[in-house]
Amino acid sequence: MDGNFQKSRREMVKIIREDYGFKDERVLEVLLKVPRHEFVPKKSRNIAHDDTPVDIGYGQTMSQPYTVAEMTNLLIAKSEKLKAERVLEVGTGSGYQAAILSHFFDEVYTVEVIPQLSHLARNNLSRLGYKNVFTKLGSGEWGWKKHAPFDAIIVTAGVDKVPQELFEQLKVRGILVAPVGKGYDKTMTRYTKIKKLRKEEMKKEEFGTFHFVPFVKEKR
Q1: Could you report how far apart the first and last alpha carbons of the chain are, in Å?
Q2: 138 near 218, Cβ under 8 Å?
Q3: Dist CA 69 CA 72 (whole Å)
Q4: Which terminus of the chain faces fewer neighbouring Cβ atoms within 10 Å, N or C?
Q5: What are the structural domain ranges in the chain?
Q6: Which residues are named in the active-site annotation (predicted)?
Q7: Cβ partners under 8 Å of residue 202, min gap 6
Q8: 92, 36 in Cβ contact below 8 A?
Q9: DSSP result, 124-177
């Protein structure tokens, strides 16, 4: 059975490389290593590596493989250090994106607002031996101030705009990647915090349209 999943992962990576023209071999190598099928419900394991999002329950989905690859690439493309850095993920889901990030960053901090998913992700990551990923139950809009500032931040659900608190928890020259915009279609956006004179600013770059479930805030 594991052999079948390995074959499916190889086909998944082939599609990302050839159909999408994706060129970051560092990311593709990690996509081959991380067992995506271990992060989806058992009933969905047969489609875990298909080029589509996967329902993980509670109104949430795991992003399609290409989206995971693209967001990871945008996050690490400008980094020279990587393994010496720490990253914040907003929206843990079932833990797959955090597992990918753990191969590129020394410390991964990830926040999930849905209790059942936070518990699921923590179990998945522990069971599979990801010891440099730290999970927290809470609203991602507030980040994780205790461990800030971060070298990079990734938002894995669609937002109308990026919460200011996240920008404030980003280091100067840090990267923040998020799907931003109104409605179901979001613009993949990369922000770089720069310092001009004594003022901090965010440089903004846009990278096409992607589909995302909406950002879930903590109920008060």
Answers
A1: 44
A2: yes
A3: 5
A4: C
A5: 2-211
A6: 63
A7: 167, 176, 191, 192, 193, 194
A8: no
A9: HHHHTT-TTEEEEES-GGG--GGG--EEEEEE-SBBSS--HHHHHTEEEEEEEE
**Predicted confidence (pLDDT) per residue in 1-48, tens digit:** 567 889 999 999 999 999 999 999 999 999 999 999 999 999 999 999
Q: Are 61 and 54 in contact (CB under 8 A)?
A: yes
The residue written with tokens 């797959």 in the block is: 96
Q: For residues 143 and 162, is the Cβ–Cβ distance under 8 A? A: no
> Does pLDDT of 60 surpass 70?
yes
Taking alpha carbons only, the member of 58, 59, 76 closest to residue 68 is 76
Confidence at residue 49, expressed as pLDDT on a 0 to 100 scale: 96
The architecture CATH gives domain 2-211: 3-Layer(aba) Sandwich (3.40)
The tokens of 31 are what? 């996509």
Query: What element of type H or E holds 196?
Result: strand 185-196
What is the rounded CA–CA span in Å between residue 71 and residue 155?
A: 9
Active-site amino acid positions? 63
Q: How far is it, in rounded angstroms, from Cα 125 to Cα 130?
A: 5
Residue 153: the pLDDT is 97
Please spell the DSSP secondary structure of 181-195, one letter per residue: SSSSEEEEEEEEEEE
For the full predicted model, state whether its pTM sits above 0.70.
yes
